[in-house]
Amino acid sequence: xxxxxxxxxxxxxxxxxxxxxxxxxxxxxxxxxxxxxxxxxxxxxxxxxxxxxxxxxxxxxxxxxxxxxxxxxxxxxxxxxxxxxxxxxxxxxxxxxxxxxxxxxxxxxxxxxxxxxxxxxxxxxxxxxxxxxxxxxxxxxxxxxxxxxxxxxxxxxxxxxxxxxxxxxxxxxxxxxxxxxxxxxxxxxxxxxxxxxxxxxxxxxxxxxxxxxxxxxxxxxxxxxxxxxxxxxxxxxxxxxxxxxxxxxxxxxxxxxxxxxxxxxxxxxxxxxxxxxxx
Amino acid sequence: xxxxxxxxxxxxxxxxxxxxxxxxxxxxxxxxxxxxxxxxxxxxxxxxxxxxxxxxxxxxxxxxxxxxxxxxxxxxxxxxxxxxxxxxxxxxxxxxxxxxxxxxxxxxxxxxxxxxxxxxxxxxxxxxxxxxxxxxxxxxxxxxxxxxxxxxxxxxxxxxxxxxxxxxxxxxxxxxxxxxxxxxxxxxxxxxxxxxxxxxxxxxxxxxxxxxxxxxxxxxxxxxxxxxxxxxxxxxxxxxxxxxxxxxxxxxxxxxxxxxxxxxxxxxxxxxxxxxxxxxxxxxxxxxxxxxxxxxxxxxxxxxxxxxxxxxxxxxx
Lengths: 279, 317
Hints:
- The complex is a heterodimer.
- Chain A has helices at residues 36-41, 57-64, 91-102, 136-152, 170-189, 230-237, 248-253, 263-278; strands at 24-26, 33-35, 70-73, 77-79, 108-115, 118-125, 156-162, 194-203, 216-219, 225-226, 259-260.
- Chain A is of the alpha/beta class.
- In chain A, strands 3, 5, 6, 7, 8, 9, 10 and 11 form an 8-stranded mixed β-sheet that branches. Chain A has a two-stranded antiparallel ribbon with strand order 1-2.
- The termini of chain A are far apart.
- The model of chain A has no long low-confidence stretch (mean pLDDT 94).
- In chain B, strands 1, 2, 3, 4, 5, 6, 7 and 8 form an 8-stranded mixed β-sheet that branches.
- In chain B, α1 packs antiparallel against α2, α3 (55-62) crosses α11 (239-246) and α4 crosses α13 (274-290).
- At the A-B interface, β4, α4, α5 and α6 of A face α7, α8, α9, α10 and α11 of B.
Protein backbone atom coordinates (compact mmCIF):
# COMPACT_ATOMS: atom_id res chain seq x y z
CA UNK A 1 0.00 0.00 0.00
CA UNK A 2 1.26 3.43 -0.83
CA UNK A 3 2.27 5.68 2.01
CA UNK A 4 0.69 8.70 0.49
CA UNK A 5 -2.53 8.81 -1.31
CA UNK A 6 -3.97 11.61 -3.31
CA UNK A 7 -6.93 12.90 -1.29
CA UNK A 8 -8.48 14.85 -4.09
CA UNK A 9 -8.73 14.06 -7.69
CA UNK A 10 -8.36 16.35 -10.63
CA UNK A 11 -4.82 17.55 -9.98
CA UNK A 12 -3.36 18.11 -13.41
CA UNK A 13 -0.04 19.42 -14.66
CA UNK A 14 -0.28 22.59 -16.64
CA UNK A 15 1.43 22.52 -20.00
CA UNK A 16 4.88 24.22 -19.75
CA UNK A 17 4.88 27.87 -20.66
CA UNK A 18 7.02 28.66 -23.66
CA UNK A 19 9.90 30.89 -22.51
CA UNK A 20 11.25 32.91 -25.40
CA UNK A 21 15.00 32.67 -25.91
CA UNK A 22 16.91 35.44 -24.18
CA UNK A 23 14.08 36.65 -21.97
CA UNK A 24 15.88 35.61 -18.81
CA UNK A 25 19.50 35.87 -17.89
CA UNK A 26 21.21 34.04 -15.05
CA UNK A 27 23.63 36.12 -12.97
CA UNK A 28 27.03 34.39 -13.23
CA UNK A 29 27.76 35.34 -9.62
CA UNK A 30 24.63 34.77 -7.51
CA UNK A 31 22.76 32.66 -10.10
CA UNK A 32 19.63 34.76 -9.73
CA UNK A 33 17.36 34.76 -12.74
CA UNK A 34 17.14 38.26 -14.12
CA UNK A 35 14.79 39.62 -16.73
CA UNK A 36 16.91 40.58 -19.71
CA UNK A 37 15.00 43.81 -20.23
CA UNK A 38 15.47 44.77 -16.57
CA UNK A 39 19.14 43.83 -16.77
CA UNK A 40 19.57 46.17 -19.70
CA UNK A 41 17.80 48.97 -17.82
CA UNK A 42 20.11 48.26 -14.90
CA UNK A 43 23.16 48.64 -17.21
CA UNK A 44 23.93 44.94 -17.01
CA UNK A 45 24.46 44.93 -13.28
CA UNK A 46 22.75 42.20 -11.24
CA UNK A 47 20.02 43.82 -9.15
CA UNK A 48 20.44 41.11 -6.49
CA UNK A 49 24.22 41.06 -5.88
CA UNK A 50 25.61 44.08 -7.79
CA UNK A 51 27.70 41.80 -9.99
CA UNK A 52 28.86 43.75 -13.05
CA UNK A 53 28.33 41.57 -16.10
CA UNK A 54 30.88 41.84 -18.89
CA UNK A 55 29.68 44.22 -21.57
CA UNK A 56 31.28 45.62 -24.69
CA UNK A 57 31.96 48.91 -26.40
CA UNK A 58 28.39 49.18 -27.71
CA UNK A 59 26.94 49.14 -24.21
CA UNK A 60 29.59 51.45 -22.71
CA UNK A 61 29.11 54.01 -25.47
CA UNK A 62 25.35 53.90 -24.83
CA UNK A 63 25.84 54.32 -21.11
CA UNK A 64 28.30 57.18 -21.42
CA UNK A 65 27.40 59.49 -24.26
CA UNK A 66 24.64 62.08 -24.15
CA UNK A 67 21.52 60.87 -25.97
CA UNK A 68 23.63 57.83 -26.90
CA UNK A 69 25.09 59.88 -29.73
CA UNK A 70 28.72 59.56 -30.71
CA UNK A 71 31.02 59.52 -33.72
CA UNK A 72 33.06 56.39 -34.21
CA UNK A 73 36.67 56.92 -35.29
CA UNK A 74 39.28 54.74 -37.04
CA UNK A 75 36.81 51.90 -37.47
CA UNK A 76 38.48 50.84 -40.71
CA UNK A 77 41.58 49.29 -39.12
CA UNK A 78 41.85 45.49 -39.12
CA UNK A 79 44.59 43.05 -38.18
CA UNK A 80 47.28 42.10 -40.65
CA UNK A 81 49.44 39.06 -40.05
CA UNK A 82 53.00 40.36 -39.82
CA UNK A 83 54.49 36.99 -38.85
CA UNK A 84 52.36 34.58 -40.88
CA UNK A 85 51.47 33.08 -37.51
CA UNK A 86 49.97 29.60 -37.45
CA UNK A 87 49.32 27.60 -34.29
CA UNK A 88 46.43 25.17 -34.38
CA UNK A 89 44.98 27.43 -37.06
CA UNK A 90 46.17 30.48 -39.01
CA UNK A 91 45.94 33.81 -37.19
CA UNK A 92 43.95 35.47 -39.97
CA UNK A 93 41.37 32.68 -39.78
CA UNK A 94 40.98 33.43 -36.08
CA UNK A 95 40.56 37.10 -36.86
CA UNK A 96 38.03 36.32 -39.57
CA UNK A 97 36.04 34.09 -37.22
CA UNK A 98 36.15 36.72 -34.47
CA UNK A 99 34.98 39.42 -36.89
CA UNK A 100 32.11 37.27 -38.11
CA UNK A 101 31.06 36.25 -34.60
CA UNK A 102 31.28 39.66 -32.96
CA UNK A 103 30.50 41.95 -35.86
CA UNK A 104 33.52 44.01 -34.76
CA UNK A 105 36.70 44.78 -36.69
CA UNK A 106 39.07 44.30 -33.74
CA UNK A 107 39.09 44.23 -29.95
CA UNK A 108 38.77 47.99 -29.53
CA UNK A 109 36.56 50.85 -30.72
CA UNK A 110 37.05 54.58 -30.49
CA UNK A 111 34.30 57.17 -30.32
CA UNK A 112 33.97 60.84 -29.55
CA UNK A 113 30.96 62.65 -28.16
CA UNK A 114 29.80 64.50 -25.07
CA UNK A 115 29.15 63.38 -21.50
CA UNK A 116 26.79 65.73 -19.66
CA UNK A 117 27.75 68.27 -22.26
CA UNK A 118 31.53 67.92 -21.96
CA UNK A 119 33.56 66.61 -24.91
CA UNK A 120 35.23 63.24 -24.43
CA UNK A 121 37.13 60.71 -26.53
CA UNK A 122 36.52 57.11 -25.47
CA UNK A 123 38.29 53.98 -26.61
CA UNK A 124 36.76 50.80 -25.32
CA UNK A 125 37.78 47.17 -25.58
CA UNK A 126 35.62 44.20 -26.50
CA UNK A 127 36.53 41.00 -24.69
CA UNK A 128 34.52 38.95 -27.18
CA UNK A 129 37.15 39.65 -29.82
CA UNK A 130 40.07 37.24 -29.12
CA UNK A 131 39.93 38.00 -25.40
CA UNK A 132 40.28 41.74 -25.93
CA UNK A 133 43.89 41.10 -26.83
CA UNK A 134 46.21 43.92 -27.85
CA UNK A 135 47.84 43.70 -31.25
CA UNK A 136 48.95 46.33 -33.75
CA UNK A 137 45.39 47.50 -34.39
CA UNK A 138 44.70 48.23 -30.73
CA UNK A 139 48.06 49.99 -30.39
CA UNK A 140 47.38 52.14 -33.42
CA UNK A 141 43.82 52.98 -32.39
CA UNK A 142 44.92 54.04 -28.92
CA UNK A 143 47.78 56.04 -30.43
CA UNK A 144 45.38 57.79 -32.82
CA UNK A 145 42.83 58.39 -30.06
CA UNK A 146 45.54 59.96 -27.91
CA UNK A 147 46.76 62.08 -30.83
CA UNK A 148 43.22 63.23 -31.62
CA UNK A 149 42.61 64.03 -27.95
CA UNK A 150 45.88 65.94 -27.91
CA UNK A 151 45.17 67.90 -31.07
CA UNK A 152 41.65 68.85 -29.96
CA UNK A 153 42.49 69.24 -26.26
CA UNK A 154 39.75 66.73 -25.47
CA UNK A 155 40.04 64.45 -22.44
CA UNK A 156 40.57 60.75 -23.14
CA UNK A 157 38.93 57.76 -21.46
CA UNK A 158 40.26 54.27 -22.11
CA UNK A 159 38.04 51.40 -20.95
CA UNK A 160 40.19 48.28 -20.61
CA UNK A 161 38.90 44.73 -20.74
CA UNK A 162 41.67 42.49 -21.98
CA UNK A 163 43.71 39.38 -21.31
CA UNK A 164 46.83 41.24 -22.46
CA UNK A 165 49.01 41.27 -25.52
CA UNK A 166 47.97 39.27 -28.60
CA UNK A 167 50.37 36.35 -28.82
CA UNK A 168 49.87 35.88 -32.55
CA UNK A 169 51.58 39.18 -33.22
CA UNK A 170 54.44 38.29 -30.84
CA UNK A 171 56.97 41.13 -30.52
CA UNK A 172 54.74 43.47 -32.54
CA UNK A 173 52.16 43.27 -29.77
CA UNK A 174 54.85 43.71 -27.11
CA UNK A 175 55.94 46.94 -28.78
CA UNK A 176 52.39 48.28 -28.47
CA UNK A 177 53.12 48.71 -24.75
CA UNK A 178 55.81 51.21 -25.71
CA UNK A 179 53.85 52.77 -28.54
CA UNK A 180 50.71 53.49 -26.49
CA UNK A 181 52.75 54.79 -23.55
CA UNK A 182 54.67 57.06 -25.93
CA UNK A 183 51.55 58.69 -27.34
CA UNK A 184 50.02 59.02 -23.86
CA UNK A 185 53.16 60.77 -22.63
CA UNK A 186 52.63 63.41 -25.34
CA UNK A 187 49.02 63.76 -24.17
CA UNK A 188 50.26 64.20 -20.61
CA UNK A 189 52.80 66.83 -21.71
CA UNK A 190 49.96 68.72 -23.39
CA UNK A 191 48.07 68.77 -20.07
CA UNK A 192 45.07 66.87 -21.42
CA UNK A 193 43.38 64.58 -18.86
CA UNK A 194 43.51 60.84 -19.35
CA UNK A 195 41.15 58.60 -17.39
CA UNK A 196 41.71 54.85 -17.29
CA UNK A 197 38.79 52.60 -16.42
CA UNK A 198 39.68 48.99 -15.72
CA UNK A 199 36.91 46.43 -16.05
CA UNK A 200 36.78 42.68 -15.66
CA UNK A 201 39.35 41.45 -16.66
CA UNK A 202 42.36 43.71 -17.18
CA UNK A 203 45.63 41.80 -17.15
CA UNK A 204 49.04 41.42 -18.79
CA UNK A 205 50.44 43.95 -21.24
CA UNK A 206 47.39 46.20 -21.06
CA UNK A 207 47.77 46.62 -17.29
CA UNK A 208 51.55 46.94 -17.70
CA UNK A 209 51.15 49.95 -19.97
CA UNK A 210 48.35 52.45 -20.52
CA UNK A 211 45.76 51.00 -18.10
CA UNK A 212 47.95 51.89 -15.10
CA UNK A 213 49.01 55.28 -16.45
CA UNK A 214 45.80 57.27 -16.03
CA UNK A 215 45.68 60.61 -14.29
CA UNK A 216 42.70 58.85 -12.79
CA UNK A 217 42.78 55.09 -12.44
CA UNK A 218 39.20 53.88 -12.00
CA UNK A 219 37.76 50.39 -11.91
CA UNK A 220 34.41 48.67 -11.83
CA UNK A 221 33.65 46.70 -8.64
CA UNK A 222 34.93 43.15 -8.44
CA UNK A 223 37.02 43.28 -11.61
CA UNK A 224 40.09 41.08 -11.98
CA UNK A 225 43.07 43.39 -12.45
CA UNK A 226 46.68 42.27 -12.45
CA UNK A 227 49.94 41.74 -14.24
CA UNK A 228 50.19 37.95 -14.17
CA UNK A 229 47.08 35.81 -14.31
CA UNK A 230 45.92 34.06 -11.10
CA UNK A 231 46.72 30.58 -12.49
CA UNK A 232 50.34 31.53 -13.26
CA UNK A 233 50.79 33.03 -9.80
CA UNK A 234 49.24 29.99 -8.12
CA UNK A 235 51.62 27.72 -10.02
CA UNK A 236 54.62 29.93 -9.22
CA UNK A 237 54.09 30.16 -5.47
CA UNK A 238 52.48 26.73 -5.09
CA UNK A 239 49.78 28.06 -2.79
CA UNK A 240 46.16 29.03 -3.11
CA UNK A 241 45.59 32.73 -3.53
CA UNK A 242 43.86 34.72 -0.80
CA UNK A 243 40.21 35.60 -1.32
CA UNK A 244 39.75 38.83 -3.18
CA UNK A 245 43.32 38.80 -4.53
CA UNK A 246 43.73 40.96 -7.68
CA UNK A 247 40.23 42.42 -7.44
CA UNK A 248 39.46 46.11 -7.84
CA UNK A 249 39.00 46.31 -4.07
CA UNK A 250 42.45 44.75 -3.54
CA UNK A 251 44.08 47.26 -5.89
CA UNK A 252 42.31 50.19 -4.24
CA UNK A 253 43.54 48.95 -0.86
CA UNK A 254 47.12 48.73 -2.16
CA UNK A 255 47.05 52.20 -3.63
CA UNK A 256 46.83 51.57 -7.36
CA UNK A 257 43.32 52.90 -7.97
CA UNK A 258 41.81 56.29 -7.31
CA UNK A 259 38.26 55.03 -7.04
CA UNK A 260 35.95 52.12 -7.64
CA UNK A 261 32.93 53.25 -9.62
CA UNK A 262 29.64 51.38 -9.88
CA UNK A 263 28.40 51.26 -13.45
CA UNK A 264 25.29 53.20 -12.54
CA UNK A 265 27.52 56.06 -11.36
CA UNK A 266 29.99 55.86 -14.24
CA UNK A 267 28.56 58.61 -16.40
CA UNK A 268 28.11 60.90 -13.41
CA UNK A 269 31.65 60.29 -12.13
CA UNK A 270 33.30 60.81 -15.51
CA UNK A 271 31.34 64.02 -15.97
CA UNK A 272 32.35 65.16 -12.49
CA UNK A 273 36.05 64.59 -13.22
CA UNK A 274 35.79 66.36 -16.56
CA UNK A 275 34.07 69.36 -15.00
CA UNK A 276 36.49 69.56 -12.07
CA UNK A 277 39.45 69.68 -14.43
CA UNK A 278 37.80 72.03 -16.87
CA UNK A 279 36.53 74.84 -14.66
CA UNK B 1 82.06 23.26 -19.39
CA UNK B 2 78.32 22.85 -19.73
CA UNK B 3 76.96 21.46 -23.00
CA UNK B 4 73.44 21.95 -24.28
CA UNK B 5 71.38 19.14 -25.68
CA UNK B 6 72.03 20.04 -29.31
CA UNK B 7 75.76 20.31 -28.60
CA UNK B 8 76.10 16.53 -28.16
CA UNK B 9 78.36 16.08 -31.23
CA UNK B 10 80.89 18.64 -30.02
CA UNK B 11 80.57 17.47 -26.43
CA UNK B 12 82.03 14.12 -27.47
CA UNK B 13 84.90 15.85 -29.24
CA UNK B 14 85.50 17.96 -26.16
CA UNK B 15 85.60 14.91 -23.89
CA UNK B 16 88.03 13.17 -26.22
CA UNK B 17 90.17 16.29 -26.26
CA UNK B 18 90.23 16.41 -22.47
CA UNK B 19 91.24 12.74 -22.35
CA UNK B 20 94.14 13.28 -24.77
CA UNK B 21 95.26 16.35 -22.86
CA UNK B 22 95.24 14.30 -19.66
CA UNK B 23 97.46 11.63 -21.18
CA UNK B 24 99.74 14.26 -22.73
CA UNK B 25 100.13 16.03 -19.41
CA UNK B 26 101.55 12.91 -17.81
CA UNK B 27 104.52 13.45 -20.12
CA UNK B 28 105.00 9.89 -21.28
CA UNK B 29 103.55 10.30 -24.76
CA UNK B 30 103.64 13.33 -27.03
CA UNK B 31 100.13 13.87 -28.35
CA UNK B 32 100.44 17.53 -29.30
CA UNK B 33 99.76 17.00 -32.98
CA UNK B 34 96.68 14.88 -32.27
CA UNK B 35 95.51 17.48 -29.76
CA UNK B 36 95.97 20.31 -32.25
CA UNK B 37 94.10 18.39 -34.89
CA UNK B 38 91.25 17.62 -32.52
CA UNK B 39 91.13 21.21 -31.31
CA UNK B 40 90.81 22.41 -34.89
CA UNK B 41 88.11 19.85 -35.51
CA UNK B 42 86.26 20.90 -32.34
CA UNK B 43 86.37 24.57 -33.36
CA UNK B 44 85.28 23.82 -36.92
CA UNK B 45 82.41 21.57 -35.82
CA UNK B 46 81.26 24.08 -33.22
CA UNK B 47 81.32 26.92 -35.71
CA UNK B 48 79.28 24.91 -38.18
CA UNK B 49 76.81 24.00 -35.44
CA UNK B 50 76.50 27.64 -34.36
CA UNK B 51 76.19 28.94 -37.91
CA UNK B 52 72.80 27.29 -38.36
CA UNK B 53 71.01 27.47 -35.02
CA UNK B 54 67.24 27.16 -35.00
CA UNK B 55 65.08 29.56 -33.02
CA UNK B 56 64.63 27.09 -30.18
CA UNK B 57 68.38 26.36 -30.07
CA UNK B 58 69.10 30.07 -29.75
CA UNK B 59 66.61 30.22 -26.88
CA UNK B 60 68.67 27.49 -25.21
CA UNK B 61 71.96 29.32 -25.85
CA UNK B 62 70.44 32.50 -24.42
CA UNK B 63 69.84 30.56 -21.21
CA UNK B 64 73.25 28.90 -21.08
CA UNK B 65 74.28 28.81 -17.40
CA UNK B 66 77.78 30.07 -18.22
CA UNK B 67 76.58 33.09 -20.19
CA UNK B 68 77.86 36.41 -18.87
CA UNK B 69 75.41 38.67 -17.03
CA UNK B 70 75.14 42.39 -16.31
CA UNK B 71 77.71 42.58 -13.49
CA UNK B 72 80.29 40.85 -15.69
CA UNK B 73 79.63 43.29 -18.52
CA UNK B 74 79.70 46.26 -16.15
CA UNK B 75 83.16 45.21 -14.96
CA UNK B 76 84.46 44.20 -18.37
CA UNK B 77 83.11 46.79 -20.79
CA UNK B 78 83.68 49.65 -18.37
CA UNK B 79 86.05 50.71 -15.60
CA UNK B 80 85.28 52.23 -12.21
CA UNK B 81 81.92 50.49 -11.85
CA UNK B 82 80.20 51.64 -8.69
CA UNK B 83 77.15 49.59 -7.87
CA UNK B 84 74.34 51.42 -6.14
CA UNK B 85 71.31 49.93 -4.46
CA UNK B 86 67.67 50.26 -3.54
CA UNK B 87 64.45 51.82 -4.76
CA UNK B 88 64.17 54.14 -1.71
CA UNK B 89 60.67 52.81 -1.13
CA UNK B 90 60.66 49.16 -0.23
CA UNK B 91 63.94 47.30 -0.63
CA UNK B 92 66.87 46.43 -2.86
CA UNK B 93 65.91 43.99 -5.58
CA UNK B 94 68.73 41.59 -6.34
CA UNK B 95 67.42 40.68 -9.79
CA UNK B 96 68.16 44.15 -11.18
CA UNK B 97 71.54 45.78 -10.59
CA UNK B 98 72.92 49.14 -11.57
CA UNK B 99 75.42 51.87 -11.02
CA UNK B 100 77.72 54.42 -12.57
CA UNK B 101 80.77 53.32 -14.55
CA UNK B 102 83.23 54.76 -17.00
CA UNK B 103 83.08 53.74 -20.65
CA UNK B 104 85.92 55.00 -22.81
CA UNK B 105 86.63 57.72 -20.27
CA UNK B 106 83.03 58.92 -20.00
CA UNK B 107 80.58 58.24 -17.19
CA UNK B 108 77.54 56.14 -18.03
CA UNK B 109 74.74 54.55 -16.01
CA UNK B 110 74.63 50.76 -16.27
CA UNK B 111 71.37 48.98 -15.39
CA UNK B 112 70.47 45.37 -16.02
CA UNK B 113 68.92 42.11 -14.95
CA UNK B 114 71.24 39.87 -12.98
CA UNK B 115 71.03 36.09 -12.87
CA UNK B 116 73.07 34.00 -10.46
CA UNK B 117 76.20 32.12 -11.44
CA UNK B 118 75.48 29.07 -9.26
CA UNK B 119 72.44 27.47 -7.65
CA UNK B 120 72.67 29.52 -4.48
CA UNK B 121 73.18 32.77 -6.35
CA UNK B 122 70.45 31.95 -8.82
CA UNK B 123 68.01 31.83 -5.91
CA UNK B 124 69.51 35.00 -4.44
CA UNK B 125 68.98 36.75 -7.77
CA UNK B 126 65.49 35.21 -8.14
CA UNK B 127 66.60 33.80 -11.51
CA UNK B 128 66.69 37.28 -12.97
CA UNK B 129 62.98 37.84 -12.33
CA UNK B 130 62.54 41.30 -10.88
CA UNK B 131 59.86 42.46 -8.48
CA UNK B 132 58.31 45.93 -8.71
CA UNK B 133 61.08 47.34 -6.49
CA UNK B 134 63.59 46.22 -9.15
CA UNK B 135 61.87 48.28 -11.82
CA UNK B 136 61.52 51.19 -9.41
CA UNK B 137 65.22 50.98 -8.56
CA UNK B 138 65.99 50.99 -12.29
CA UNK B 139 63.83 54.09 -12.74
CA UNK B 140 65.48 55.86 -9.80
CA UNK B 141 68.89 55.21 -11.32
CA UNK B 142 67.76 56.38 -14.74
CA UNK B 143 66.36 59.60 -13.30
CA UNK B 144 69.65 60.15 -11.50
CA UNK B 145 71.60 59.61 -14.73
CA UNK B 146 69.29 62.10 -16.42
CA UNK B 147 69.86 64.60 -13.65
CA UNK B 148 73.61 64.46 -14.16
CA UNK B 149 73.40 64.22 -17.96
CA UNK B 150 74.87 60.73 -18.22
CA UNK B 151 73.87 58.25 -20.93
CA UNK B 152 72.08 55.05 -19.88
CA UNK B 153 72.92 51.52 -20.96
CA UNK B 154 70.57 48.68 -20.02
CA UNK B 155 71.38 44.96 -20.18
CA UNK B 156 68.25 42.84 -20.59
CA UNK B 157 68.24 39.18 -19.61
CA UNK B 158 65.12 37.94 -17.85
CA UNK B 159 62.69 35.02 -18.12
CA UNK B 160 60.02 37.56 -17.13
CA UNK B 161 58.95 39.91 -14.38
CA UNK B 162 58.28 37.84 -11.25
CA UNK B 163 54.67 36.58 -11.20
CA UNK B 164 54.37 36.42 -7.40
CA UNK B 165 51.79 37.36 -4.84
CA UNK B 166 53.77 40.22 -3.32
CA UNK B 167 54.74 41.45 -6.78
CA UNK B 168 51.05 41.95 -7.52
CA UNK B 169 50.45 43.60 -4.15
CA UNK B 170 53.19 46.11 -4.83
CA UNK B 171 52.03 46.78 -8.38
CA UNK B 172 54.20 44.90 -10.86
CA UNK B 173 52.09 46.19 -13.74
CA UNK B 174 52.24 49.78 -12.52
CA UNK B 175 56.01 49.62 -12.07
CA UNK B 176 56.58 48.35 -15.61
CA UNK B 177 54.08 50.78 -17.13
CA UNK B 178 55.68 53.70 -15.30
CA UNK B 179 59.15 52.68 -16.48
CA UNK B 180 58.07 52.39 -20.11
CA UNK B 181 56.52 55.84 -20.07
CA UNK B 182 59.32 57.50 -18.12
CA UNK B 183 62.05 55.91 -20.25
CA UNK B 184 60.30 57.33 -23.29
CA UNK B 185 60.89 60.87 -21.98
CA UNK B 186 64.45 60.58 -20.64
CA UNK B 187 66.55 63.52 -21.77
CA UNK B 188 69.76 61.50 -22.14
CA UNK B 189 70.72 58.81 -24.69
CA UNK B 190 69.43 55.34 -23.80
CA UNK B 191 70.98 52.22 -25.31
CA UNK B 192 69.30 48.85 -24.60
CA UNK B 193 70.94 45.50 -25.15
CA UNK B 194 69.21 42.14 -25.09
CA UNK B 195 72.07 39.98 -23.80
CA UNK B 196 70.08 36.82 -22.99
CA UNK B 197 66.36 36.35 -22.56
CA UNK B 198 64.04 39.20 -23.50
CA UNK B 199 60.78 38.03 -22.03
CA UNK B 200 57.84 40.35 -22.47
CA UNK B 201 56.97 43.08 -19.97
CA UNK B 202 59.88 42.12 -17.76
CA UNK B 203 62.25 42.98 -20.60
CA UNK B 204 60.59 46.08 -22.02
CA UNK B 205 60.32 47.47 -18.48
CA UNK B 206 63.98 48.49 -18.93
CA UNK B 207 63.94 48.25 -22.73
CA UNK B 208 62.84 51.59 -24.16
CA UNK B 209 65.94 53.00 -25.86
CA UNK B 210 67.08 55.26 -28.67
CA UNK B 211 68.86 52.15 -29.86
CA UNK B 212 67.83 48.60 -29.00
CA UNK B 213 70.29 45.86 -29.95
CA UNK B 214 70.17 42.11 -29.60
CA UNK B 215 73.16 39.84 -29.25
CA UNK B 216 73.24 37.16 -31.90
CA UNK B 217 72.01 34.29 -29.70
CA UNK B 218 69.22 35.91 -27.75
CA UNK B 219 65.47 36.13 -27.98
CA UNK B 220 62.94 38.89 -27.46
CA UNK B 221 59.18 38.42 -27.56
CA UNK B 222 55.87 38.82 -25.83
CA UNK B 223 56.01 35.33 -24.29
CA UNK B 224 58.45 32.44 -23.90
CA UNK B 225 58.12 29.61 -26.42
CA UNK B 226 57.16 27.22 -23.61
CA UNK B 227 54.32 29.39 -22.31
CA UNK B 228 53.18 30.12 -25.85
CA UNK B 229 53.04 26.40 -26.53
CA UNK B 230 51.11 25.73 -23.34
CA UNK B 231 48.51 28.38 -24.17
CA UNK B 232 48.03 27.78 -27.88
CA UNK B 233 48.66 24.03 -28.05
CA UNK B 234 47.68 23.25 -24.43
CA UNK B 235 51.00 21.50 -23.72
CA UNK B 236 54.75 22.21 -23.69
CA UNK B 237 55.60 19.85 -26.54
CA UNK B 238 55.33 22.48 -29.25
CA UNK B 239 58.01 24.82 -27.91
CA UNK B 240 60.22 24.42 -31.01
CA UNK B 241 57.25 25.22 -33.23
CA UNK B 242 56.29 28.13 -30.98
CA UNK B 243 59.85 29.51 -31.13
CA UNK B 244 59.68 29.52 -34.93
CA UNK B 245 56.16 30.98 -35.03
CA UNK B 246 57.03 33.80 -32.62
CA UNK B 247 60.04 34.83 -34.78
CA UNK B 248 61.86 35.81 -31.63
CA UNK B 249 65.48 35.69 -32.81
CA UNK B 250 67.68 38.72 -33.50
CA UNK B 251 67.67 38.32 -37.30
CA UNK B 252 63.87 38.09 -37.45
CA UNK B 253 63.43 41.01 -35.04
CA UNK B 254 65.79 43.13 -37.13
CA UNK B 255 63.95 42.08 -40.29
CA UNK B 256 60.69 43.34 -38.79
CA UNK B 257 62.29 46.63 -37.79
CA UNK B 258 61.58 46.03 -34.10
CA UNK B 259 65.25 46.32 -33.08
CA UNK B 260 68.03 48.51 -34.42
CA UNK B 261 70.82 46.01 -34.84
CA UNK B 262 72.42 42.67 -34.08
CA UNK B 263 75.67 42.33 -32.18
CA UNK B 264 77.74 39.28 -33.20
CA UNK B 265 78.89 36.87 -30.52
CA UNK B 266 82.26 35.11 -30.47
CA UNK B 267 82.32 31.69 -32.20
CA UNK B 268 80.42 29.23 -30.04
CA UNK B 269 78.36 31.94 -28.32
CA UNK B 270 79.01 34.55 -25.63
CA UNK B 271 79.58 31.90 -22.97
CA UNK B 272 82.47 30.31 -24.88
CA UNK B 273 84.52 33.51 -24.58
CA UNK B 274 82.95 36.10 -22.24
CA UNK B 275 85.99 38.42 -22.38
CA UNK B 276 85.84 38.55 -26.17
CA UNK B 277 82.08 39.21 -25.92
CA UNK B 278 82.69 42.12 -23.54
CA UNK B 279 85.29 43.52 -25.97
CA UNK B 280 82.86 43.39 -28.86
CA UNK B 281 80.19 45.03 -26.69
CA UNK B 282 82.52 47.78 -25.49
CA UNK B 283 83.45 48.78 -29.03
CA UNK B 284 79.82 48.60 -30.08
CA UNK B 285 78.63 50.74 -27.18
CA UNK B 286 81.24 53.41 -27.77
CA UNK B 287 80.23 53.72 -31.39
CA UNK B 288 76.49 53.61 -30.58
CA UNK B 289 76.81 56.39 -27.99
CA UNK B 290 78.97 58.52 -30.27
CA UNK B 291 76.02 58.80 -32.67
CA UNK B 292 74.10 60.80 -30.08
CA UNK B 293 76.81 63.28 -29.24
CA UNK B 294 75.47 66.78 -29.66
CA UNK B 295 71.84 65.69 -29.72
CA UNK B 296 69.50 67.95 -27.78
CA UNK B 297 67.22 66.46 -25.11
CA UNK B 298 64.16 67.10 -27.28
CA UNK B 299 65.78 65.38 -30.27
CA UNK B 300 66.54 62.37 -28.10
CA UNK B 301 63.00 62.16 -26.74
CA UNK B 302 61.28 62.83 -30.06
CA UNK B 303 63.29 60.26 -32.00
CA UNK B 304 62.64 57.66 -29.31
CA UNK B 305 58.90 58.37 -29.33
CA UNK B 306 58.74 58.36 -33.13
CA UNK B 307 60.63 55.08 -33.35
CA UNK B 308 58.28 53.16 -31.08
CA UNK B 309 55.21 54.92 -32.49
CA UNK B 310 55.96 53.52 -35.94
CA UNK B 311 55.87 49.90 -34.72
CA UNK B 312 52.85 47.83 -35.70
CA UNK B 313 51.41 46.36 -38.89
CA UNK B 314 47.70 46.51 -39.73
CA UNK B 315 45.41 46.91 -42.71
CA UNK B 316 42.71 49.36 -43.64
CA UNK B 317 39.42 48.21 -45.10
